[in-house]
Structures
1.
Amino acid sequence: LVFPFALRSPETKWGLGLATAFFFKANQKEENLRTSDVSLVGLATQREQLLLVLNSTVFSSMEKRIFRMQVSYSYYPDKTWGIGNHSSESAKENYDYKQFYFNPQLLHRIAGNLYIGASYEYQEVHDFSYVANGIFDQQSIPGMNGGRTSGFGLLLTWDTRNNAYSPSHGFFSEINYTSFDRDIGSQFSFSTFSLDVRKFLPWRTNSVLALQGIIKVSDGNIPIRNMGMLGGTEIMRGYYKGRYMDKGMSSIQAEWRQYLIWRLGLAGFVAAGEVSPDIKHFSLPGIHYTYGCGL
């Protein structure tokens, strides 16, 4: 599959790109084996951003193992409002950086739909520039001079989804703990723990109710590009990605999806979330909300 695309968002303004994807099954004789894929996406935007992303998910025969990988390079003029759940809109500043990211993961089935696995995460940030004496200097935000992170992680995954890309029923839960240390090449020492839980419920004819909850908590000297962020295309849509960021992040969302005709469908969602320096400081009064719909 090869196709051009256009988009517009607060992060990018207008953008033009090209996407390619190859879908296959590791064993064509296994009808219940989920589809594997390798995809490559390139994007250039009106804000002079450049993004190249290679993604892959491969299910082995009998789904005894799952291999996932993401590799990306980006030049991304971005915005920040500083660290915290109550940052002011007037604090907004621009900053630029170039980034290389590499994250392979290998999961092995230990029983039923339960998998255990290992991951390696590498990130190189350079050519980082920001407004002098602005919010980066005022808050002494880690990573404001770029740098390298390198960490090994452990994964525990439970996955009963009928489809990894557009599931209509099933459950997904994943725990991820990653430790970044100078002994393995990281210039920052910290650890991250995340929990991602999703449930897909068939509802009436050609409808699906999708539910998701995410918690991410980090400890140590966390650089800006590794902090928990609200917003973007995956969680808390409607907010600029990084509008609120801190060491900890939690969010929940629900989306109703209705198939219409041909390849068209309708979706509506609601979401809530917040960021915090640690899990003890999450509070109901600090929650941010968002909602939306699309075709």
2.
Amino acid sequence: RSMKMPEARPPLVPELRFPDFRDAGPWEVKRLGEVYRFKPTNSWPRDRLNYESGVVRNIHYGDIHKGLSTSFRLAESTVPFLDDELADRLASDAYCEPGDVVLADASEDVADIGKAIEIVEVRGERLVSGLHTILASQIERRLIIGFAAYLFASSAVRRQIQERAQGAKVLGLSKSQLAEVALTYPKHENEQQKIADCLASLDDLISAQGERLAALKAHKRGLMQQLFPQGLD
């Protein structure tokens, strides 16, 4: 009896594609472990961090959950320092570099497990990945800086990560589980750039609208204080 050959995966192409790339062929499919290697992280708790001074900044998984930008720029983010006496105990390969991805490997909520940020800019500062995080660095440059933030936030990648997470009250994610996640991306850097630029411009618009909404709400509060008599308390 002849062995049944495994079915070949159909070529993957997105439903919506920029005109320049409609004939650029299917997207690449690789396991995360083929694209990224894992770098050392630390497990120092929040009480070993401070916001006053230091020489090394530290990304705590709680800060990822609390809303660090998925396209992380250190100059635009509030990230604590490691206490100075801990800085000398860091591995030489522990520092985050542009293009690296930091993922939260623990969460009480399936929606946040494996939540990721891409390190886009560090401005020459020393930055490390801390408690309950996984730090992934590209083995060779396949993805342009700025693209991975959206790739790791895509429903296809998020769904795979959520399916692999384990635990009862607190969900956990291991490096070996993460390494098996399939990543799909355009082979051409120009197409990656086009996608990243498009989505980043939408993020900027959303942010601007959020600031405008906050200003309008503050204006309304001020008007209400002036339109109604005060001094009854």
3.
Amino acid sequence: HWARSYIEYCASMNIIAGQGDGTFAPDAPVTGAAAAKMLLVAMGYDSSLFEFTGADWEINVNRRANEAKLYEEIKNIDTSVGLSRDNTAQMAYNALEAKIMETTYDKVISSGEVSWSYGLSNETFLNKYFDAYTWVGTFIGNYNTGKAGTKGYINVDGKLDTADESVTAKEAKFPYDLDIANIGEEVKVIFKDGKSGTKGQPDKNDTIFGVFVTGATEVINTTTAKIDDLKTTETKVKVDGTKYDLADKVIVVKNYVGTGTEYKEDSLKGTKDTKNSALTTALQDTKNGDTLKLILKDGKVERAYICLLYTSPSPRDVEES
């Protein structure tokens, strides 16, 4: 069989155990639980210790797989039936980002007895075996918005996914092409450090494997025509009949260029007399039905991006022309 050498290798590593009678069925469908078992063992889980063999192997595998989030982003998965190619790829990707199981041992000098300990490492599979890292942060712009400094670069304000919560996010500028429609949203950058440059941060010297929008950012895509009069003293914005809470500070950016205008405190509060807050008035400023993207954090609007339909060229466009 074309996969014979791979089967022999994986069997020697206890990643696969076959049909239970010493034979293997490489052309048979792989179930979700079987794929999860292979990935978990590759991630350092001992098949015997974690009881991935025997009558209850599937139950034990599924419990550990859920803990490691191997089934994340896979809806309504039935782990007892064959996996689709899409779900197989998603599980493999999840394994790359999962923390590996670390094995340590202690030896008693007098008796020579060895005891083994298992615990989750702070390293992911991606870190350990590919020397690659994941940078998680907010896509804040590119060269045309004045945020990246160099043509063909983007700027992601973030930090390593393995970094402690106390670590402050910082801007990383590197060559990549990401649709500006994703501005303000959380992205993941998969990269491998080059021999020079800033270690543990994507830059021009690194290999950028990809930049992916995570979908974790709460976004409201609408138009300026859908911003309603507030008519109250509340600190809110009303979009097509629905009121949304506001963060302590809201930044409004037009045409994605510049740092935007900051609104806070009284400028966020509406009045019964004038109907609107300064923020609402700013979002209603244009009359052409311009596209409007609101970014929410913890359920509160904190940024707004207005893309003007009828406007003069941006400063960057003029410079380029």
